[in-house]
Amino acid sequence: MNSATAFKKHYVAIIGGSISGSEAANILAKNGFRVVVFEMNKLPYGKIEDGLPNWHINLRNRQINEIDSKLDQENIRFVPNTKIGKDIDFLDLVNNWGFSAIILANGAWQDRGLPILEIDKFLDKELIYQNSFIYWFNHKHEKDYDGLNYTIKNNTIVVGGGLASLDVVKIVMIELVKKQLFVKKGIEVDLFTLEKEGINTILEEYNVDFNELEIGKAKLIYRRTAKDMPLKTPKDDTKESIEIAENVSEKLLNKYQEKYLFEFIPLSIPVNFVEKENKLTEVVFQKVQVENGKIKPIENSFFNIKTEMVISSIGSVPEKIDGLQYEYTSLKMREEADYHVFGFENVFAIGNAVTGRGNIQESKKHGQQMTEKIIDKHLTEEAFKLWLTNHNNNIRSKVAEQLNSIVKEISDTKIQPESIIQKIINKTDAIHTKIGYTNYSSWTHKNLPVRLEELLKK
Ligand SMILES: Cc1cc2nc3c(=O)[nH]c(=O)nc-3n(C[C@H](O)[C@H](O)[C@H](O)COP(=O)(O)OP(=O)(O)OC[C@H]3O[C@@H](n4cnc5c(N)ncnc54)[C@H](O)[C@@H]3O)c2cc1C
Rounded to the nearest whole angstrom, what is the distance from the C-alpha of residue 42 to the centroid of ligand 1? Predict the structure, then answer.
């Protein structure tokens, strides 16, 4: 039996179909393995569809095309609308389905909890988490949107500091200005224009003074300083490169503030809240200082900010799946290799599924760097495009590296008898019949939501 024929006797399950999952599926399929990709959503685009703000039109479309080209092939069965841990029990998948291996590529979807005792009682009222906020922003224009609805308030507080928190604070300001421009001045500007040109430029163009709009600016509150924001990766570990990167991060943040008119409050952590009649009305912060990279709260340095809306954007962690072990928020791994999941012979984890962090370090190895020119001339789209494309390519190359070893391990396992292969086909066929799935391209085509840019063209 040649190796491709032998590999065909193995079925591998991948959980999650986005950047990491599609890369892994493609490599396995090209090696002759049969693969089932289980995806909890209708579409396999993960953070690209639901986490990347919808003004990144080209970037989103290109990443989606790439995922499609990897998943739409003969050896891959795509099984959407199927959440492992809910629709199928994880241990059932491991023990009873007969897969030679199971690869977790389920990313990081659970918002890290805002560390204030009992604050979650205001969830989806005065407190919103980043993932559901961006989901709402990206999908609220769809006719059949049935998710949560948010009304953005004046004086919104965004707690965060990473790239995603900048997206959140931009969304808040763009939505507020878009609405108030219409209410106060009868001026209609779409969000794509506000995002691209910047709020400051558009107000100038229409000769509108920001104060006339009666908007309470959103505040981005970060526990470190602008220099510490992960907006620029240093070229290498030398002091000079780190300093250059810090200065670029500071400059970038200033540009963002100039364009989108939000306030930035560094070196502060949220510690408590004030409520009136069961509503959150203020958040209590404490000033901190950074000593040797560590954050130290300063005694008696509390201050309150009045607000009706807090958006927590302090990171995402892998969603826990029953049957797997975790250490705090990270998936517990075996010690000897970075992709072996603890407690199993044939379960592997790749991409952001382990800690929630992608392999950003890798970008030094492969990376193109953001240049000063890009920062000055095309701040938002270009800089972010470069970061995300680079980051996703790094995830893909890391996945490819891991898959080389995983392929070897799978091929060393016992080949599966035809009856097991057939059982997997039958079970996945049954899911396909239930949800009306015929093939990858017609399914993704049918379920791709209407895009805002298309609606605005009409
Ligand atoms: C706005 C934004 C901010 C970002 N910030 C960061 C950052 O700070 N740090 C960083 O490292 N990367 C960040 N990224 C990069 C991003 O995480 C990667 O680009 C990429 O999306 C990760 O790919 P993935 O396949 O590992 O995970 P995901 O894109 O999250 O894909 C996981 C897939 O698994 C599916 N899934 C999840 N659970 C299950 C289940 N139980 N059963 C079946 N299917 C499941 C999901 O639906 C999804 O399709 C950011 C991206 C964006 C768009």
Answer: 15
CB 15 less than 6 A from any atom of ligand 1 = yes
40 in contact with ligand 1, CB cutoff 6 A: yes
**Where among 260, 285, 315 does a domain terminate?**
315
What phi and psi, each to the nearest 5 degrees, are found at residue 309? -150, 120
Domain boundary among 315, 339, 356: 315
The pLDDT tens digits for 141-183 are 999 999 999 999 999 999 997 888 999 999 999 999 999 999 9
d(CA 113, CA 120): 8
Which element (helix H / strand E) includes 235?
none
Q: Which atom of ligand 1 is nearest to the CA of 45?
A: 49
d(CA 283, CA 303) in angstroms, rounded, equals: 8
Q: Does one domain contain both 133 and 218?
A: yes
Q: What is the pLDDT of residue 7?
A: 64
161 lines ligand 1 (CB under 6 A): no
Same domain, 427 and 445: yes
**Phi, psi for residue 295 in degrees, rounded to 5:** -90, 125
Enter the tokens of residue 441: 């391209």
Total Cβ atoms within 10 A of residue 285: 22
Q: Give the global pTM.
A: 0.91
* CB-based contacts of 240, cutoff 8 Å, min separation 6: none
Domain count, the chain: 2
Domain that holds residue 257: 111-315
Strands 310-313 and 347-349: what pairing? Answer: unpaired
Chain position carrying tokens 């205001």: 122
Does 38 contact ligand 1 (Cβ within 6 A)? yes
Does ligand 1 come within 6 angstroms of the Cβ of 162?
yes
267 and 121 share a domain? yes
Contact 80 CB / ligand 1 (< 6 Å) = no
Most confident segment among 122-131, 239-248, 379-388: 122-131
How far apart CA 247 and CA 228 sit, in angstroms, is 9
Q: Residue 65's CB: how many other CB atoms inside 10 A?
A: 10
